[in-house]
What does this fold into?
Amino acid sequence: MPAYRSVFKDEAKLDINYVPSRLPHREAEIRLLTEFFSFALSTPKEMTQRVLIVGNVGTGKTALSQRFGADITRQAKQRGINLNYIHVNCRQYRGSLFLILNHAVSFFHPTFPKRGFSAEELLNIFLQVLDEQNAYAIIALDEFESMVEKSGAEPVYQLTRLQEARLGRPQRVSLICIMKSLRAIEGLDPSTRSTLQSNIISLEPYRYEQLVDIVRDRVQLAFKPLTVQEETVCLIAELAHSEGGNARFAIELLWRAGKYADAEGFDAVTPECVRKAVSSIYTVARKGDLAGLRLHEKLLLLGLARFFKENDDRAYASLTEVEQAYAVACEEFDLQPYTHTQLWKYLQVLSAMGIIKKGVSSAGHRGRTTLICLPRIPARELERELITLLEREIEDK
Ligand SMILES: Nc1ncnc2c1ncn2[C@@H]1O[C@H](COP(=O)(O)OP(=O)(O)O)[C@@H](O)[C@H]1O
Ligand SMILES: [Mg+2]
It folds into this structure.
């Protein structure tokens, strides 16, 4: 029997959570972050910092922050400074300050009890722990918008004002807030917003040539020599470029294309493997996103999926049609539909995630109206996936 052959040398280097030691084309941003936090290596007691990292999906926000966090804590350690980088995905903690702080405290005390404290108390406990250990923390609040959505300005206010009650005591906690766009914080009160907005690092979508470099770098790390053709790299970069300069899409595509090559027993990852991968990636990639949606976002999407399943010759649905379909889905699960305004917000969320596309009809005789389109997931597949998720979620309640 022939030994199992693979084009991969180290598949883990393509894992979504892997942070490469080098981030091509983000050198300037790393330098800027290092600059903003230079005090942390020289006079950590004296000040704290707040930085915003803003950019679309796949522009490297999470990777940048984590790379920086790992680098600076290593440097701090060499200087005998107890600096800790705590990366929190706010969505994963349902945007709750309480859960986020609980995570932050258990970073230092893994057996810390999960209940019995308010967010306010947790904040004090956290500071106390840092004081006791003479430690400093940089908390990276990734997907920050979900915290603002969930709890509004209050937790942001609490976090940004942390130090004010500690005048004269060592400064301990800095923040990196990571979000897709500054729109997320538009609704906050002006003074909270201005304390946040002083240092902004904006990540532009990657250009084609930059994506080529990123993919090439990852090929070196993850694949055996000469298994990935240059043409393949270019095609991946091309596709990721048209997906909005999205490096995540590129890495995912690279991994999938490799899997196809292995499945077919090829010695090399050909452009045809990429073409196969891209046709499957849309559905699979979105499925992960679906699980993270809120209940009524799922219901809205379910309504939309059904609408397009029943009207399979239609590319667009009107807002009224979407609302009707959503109401039917709510009824099925015995839930009260939300108002028009709330729905509008959900549509923004789904559109920002790229699951749906919003457009405006050309000025016909009925005037301009909003149209909703489901560009890349087959309606049937979306429906099936959502029903599974919804049934599980409602059972859990
Ligand atoms: N400059 C880069 N160099 C190498 N890999 C990158 C770079 N930017 C992003 N990536 C990779 O692309 C993927 C998406 O990046 P990520 O930081 O998750 O984007 P975002 O958080 O902005 O959505 C990750 O696998 C990450 O390692
Ligand atoms: Mg991210």
About this structure: The chain is about 50% helix and 10% strand. The chain has three domains: 11-15+206-288, 27-203, 293-382+390-396.
